[in-house]
Amino acid sequence: MIRAVRTSVPTTRRAFASRRLLSSSVPRFSADQHGHLPTTQSPITPHLEFFNSVAGEGKTIPTYRVIDGAGNPLEGARVPELDEALARKMYEEMTKLPILDNILYNVQRQGKIAFYMTCYGEEATIIGSAAALAPDDEVLGQYREMGVLLWRGFSYDSVMNQCFGTHEDIATKGKQMPVHFGSRELHFHTISSPLATQIPQAAGVGYALKRDPLRRGKNCAVVYFGEGAASEGDFHAGMLLASTIPSPTLFICRNNGFAISTPASEQYHGDGIASRGPGYGVHTIRVDGNDILAVYNAVREARRRCIEEGRAVLVEAMTYRVGHHSTSDDSFAYRPRQEVENRKRLDNPLARFRMFLEARGWWSAEEEDAFKARVKGEVMQALKRAEELPKPPVEEMFNDVYAGEEPWNIKEQKEELKRLLKKYGSAYEPWRTELRKHKGEGKEFV
């Protein structure tokens, strides 16, 4: 009989070997000695090592900045080659946003519109990125990207018609909530309320552009979202699709610190949203979202890579949501008022860029006052006009629900409404009042 002989390493030797294996953080052998895992570029190592930093050695991802809080260029920073006209337009478009936000926020509080969302504090991220894109790049926004539309020529009348749901609202035809803008002409896909649904859709749009011989190598899809939306599965689905198919899709994350009442510290444990980019094999950059020149440089370079390589790029813009999440939110219930006031004073994106312009003689206090007064007058004129316009015809509610031939259920619902209007439309005062708000008062429908 042959007996198996069991050999053992003394306890002290085993413990020493174990400690040496686990504590070694620097490889003692070169990758060439052990080669690479088959069909990969991953070098083989005999050392048990864990890592938790994209940048290596526990370092966090840096934030790209061009000008400081006083509008002065940082040493070594490359200031973009802006002429006076472009620089002034960027500042003017930034300035329009808080004027519109102030007016429409108050209009909602007066009960004239149902809902509104401001972009206080995020003006540099929105306008800086809009200026870096081509006017025919396909944009899929979340709900704070009105500035992208304004940059492309969206009128104040169009803003008001959408928010009031008038019959001149071409994109949503009075069927969507306020601030859910869209414009086929300006290549801006209509905003939808469900969180993050635009992210995988953008990857599909990017793939469609890649397949179009007339737009391949010329345009990209651009999708905006917040750091809270990046917690949804749609973010990962969109990133995976755009990186593996691949497609020219530019992901722009507005990391404004809060997902409604949830702070970013509770949204993720890792190094922000930028740390997720390398996991999908995409070029990634983190940028100071309150520095419009840094945003402009970063997005312009991101777009170039996106189109030339035909694959996804991720930009994380670090900013701060100064306003409430929406008119349905009171942010002072979950953050100190003083914190907000401090950010307004210490890191104001408009003030930073204004000081940059004034240092070059491209802007002045007199021009500031005159411009704000003119914009406010034009916005108020558009507001008053929209208040007087009727809502779309009653029959419009059944149009564009489905593409192609009108299905049986829509036809059935339409006939049912006709029957009810004939019976109660003139006899029931609440219905008469409501019908008077619509173009044609429903008479042509009946």
UniProtKB/TrEMBL annotation:
* Top-level taxon of the source organism: Eukaryota
GO molecular function annotations of the record: branched-chain 2-oxo acid dehydrogenase activity
For the biological process aspect of GO, one term held by this record is:
branched-chain amino acid catabolic process
EC number(s) given by UniProt: 1.2.4.4
Q: Which InterPro entries does the record cross-reference, listed alphabetically?
A: Alpha-ketoacid_DH_E1_comp, DH_E1, THDP-binding
Q: Where is the Dehydrogenase E1 component domain?
A: 92-394
- Which spans are transmembrane here? none
Question: Which reaction does this chain catalyze?
Answer: N(6)-[(R)-lipoyl]-L-lysyl-[protein] + 3-methyl-2-oxobutanoate + H(+) = N(6)-[(R)-S(8)-2-methylpropanoyldihydrolipoyl]-L-lysyl-[protein] + CO2
Looking up Pfam families in the UniProt record yields: E1_dh
Q: What family does the entry list?
A: Belongs to the BCKDHA family.
Q: Which PANTHER family match?
A: 2-OXOISOVALERATE DEHYDROGENASE SUBUNIT ALPHA, MITOCHONDRIAL
In UniProt terms, what function does this protein have?
The branched-chain alpha-keto dehydrogenase complex catalyzes the overall conversion of alpha-keto acids to acyl-CoA and CO(2). It contains multiple copies of three enzymatic components: branched-chain alpha-keto acid decarboxylase (E1), lipoamide acyltransferase (E2) and lipoamide dehydrogenase (E3).
- What this protein is called in its record is 2-oxoisovalerate dehydrogenase subunit alpha
